[in-house]
Write a structure and sequence with these properties.
alpha+beta, 18 strands, 35% helix, globular
């Protein structure tokens, strides 16, 4: 489960396009920050998560937020100022056992495109040639199709897919996607084989123009994902009177469906999703991308639970803290694990600890935003590094603030058992988590 939203000029205060996304996956599925440099390639083939595809001669520099075990990514931005988020969608078209995952398609598009429109075209070409498929879950079997929200500095597109079929629609002003098909008969372009495919499956809906969503949506999975609730929350955040800012987008990603949410159960209806009960996923990584024409600025958590995580700025040419190349992915994992310990500590007395963290986090994020807006483009790299360095002091302050509040909270037996199991499994899989936890407590 995931959510992605976008605001284009003139709805934004600074006149930039801004894209935001939460990645909702299994709670122990670490989400790594990965920077890949601009490259030229001599090898003819490329291994993605499950299959090989033809490699291109030259690929863009990209910043990705990706599940640690996948080649592809849930969200990212490239050097040309193209940003993409993707979502699982549940359809009646049937799922293939192997192929390109939605995450593979996202990364391939970012590495090869120079505009939002070219990114959409690349995804369509790869989809029609290779299909989509393969298990997309960490420890279980979970198959789905994909939708994409693609934006550059001036325009955005929604692309929704079913197998090798697709529909796309240009975004006007603001838009959002979640875990459901949203393009009905209002598509701008439809795959040439979509009508025949729908008729063959006895799924076609719509009169003159085929209704893509009505034809292919799986109503049961879509309903239980509560995607409509989350989509409404995202669109509601963008429908406010004030112009949209990066801070608006961060607040949108932090939404809970219950304003008095207290972390006593899972929350599949929340944009900021939490694991527990019948909810198997939670938000494990978040990104907001400000597509300034002088160079994109990505605000990342590198952590689960954006409701308490700190958003830090990154630029694609930054070096040092927060920028983990492909040969430094163990460091990226340890960074996520360090932040994860704070998130899991909130299981005891979430409400009071959340308030204590917010008092520290809000002014620091405002400081970061002012630092990046005031910095000329040539100094943003250094400013981003400085913001990441300040996170170390911030993390120490958080521990000092929440430790006096560390008293047990009554949870349902099921919720407690589930989290004890997840915590044991996290320590078993990555012993460094225990070490980083002990170091954090010693601060």
């Amino acid at each position: 489960m995931c959510d992605t939203l976008v605001a284009l000029a003139p709805t934004t205060l600074n006149g930039h396009a801004i894209l935001a996304k939460n990645s909702d996956r299994e709670p122990n599925e670490a989400q790594l920050l990965t920077i890949v440099s601009h490259k030229t390639h001599s090898e003819p083939r490329l291994k993605t998560t499950y299959i090989e595809v033809d490699q291109v001669r030259e690929t863009n520099a990209v910043l990705l937020c990706r599940p640690f075990w996948m080649w592809g990514a849930e969200m990212g931005v490239n050097e040309h100022g193209v940003a993409i988020g993707n979502e699982a969608v549940f359809t009646r078209g049937g799922y293939d056992a192997t192929g390109l995952t939605g995450m593979d398609l996202l990364r391939l598009a970012l590495e090869r495109c120079d505009s939002a429109r070219s990114a959409v075209d690349i995804i369509i070409t790869l989809l029609e040639r290779h299909g989509q498929g393969g298990n997309c879950d960490f420890t279980k079997r979970f198959f789905y199709h994909n939708s994409f929200l693609v934006t550059d500095t001036s325009e955005a597109w929604i692309l929704e897919t079913v197998g090798r079929q697709w529909a796309r629609k240009k975004v006007s002003r603001t838009g959002a996607i979640s875990n459901l098909l949203t393009i009905g008969s209002d598509w701008d372009d439809l795959s040439p084989g979509a009508e025949a495919f729908a008729k063959q499956k006895h799924l076609r809906r719509g009169k003159d123009r085929m209704d893509f969503a009505a034809s292919f949506s799986d109503p049961l999975f879509t309903k239980f994902s509560r995607a409509r609730t989350r989509l409404a929350g995202s669109l509601g955040s963008l429908g406010l009177t004030a112009p949209v800012t990066s801070a608006t987008m961060k607040a949108a990603l932090r939404q809970h469906d219950d304003p008095d949410y207290a972390l006593g159960a899972g929350s599949v209806g929340s944009v900021c999703m939490h694991f527990g009960g019948l909810v198997g996923d939670q938000t494990v990584g978040s990104m907001v991308v400000d597509l300034d024409k002088s160079g994109p600025i990505a605000w990342v958590t590198g952590a689960s639970a954006p409701c308490i995580a700190l958003f830090k700025p990154l630029t694609l040419d930054a070096e040092g803290a927060g920028m983990f190349s492909e040969d430094r992915q163990e460091e990226a994992l340890n960074y996520w694990l360090e932040n994860e310990h704070i998130s899991r500590n909130l299981q005891n007395n979430y409400t009071e600890k959340h308030r204590a963290i917010e008092k520290l986090r809000a002014p620091l994020e405002q400081r970061f935003e002012k630092t990046m807006s005031d910095a000329p483009p040539e100094y943003r790299k250094q400013a981003a590094r400085e913001c990441f360095e300040l996170e170390k002091e911030y993390r120490a302050s958080v521990w000092k603030a929440i430790q006096p509040l560390d008293h047990p909270t009554r949870h349902s037996p099921l919720f407690s058992v589930q989290w004890r199991r997840e915590n044991r499994e996290l320590v078993r899989r990555w012993p460094t988590y225990r070490a980083s936890s002990e170091n954090a407590r010693a601060v």
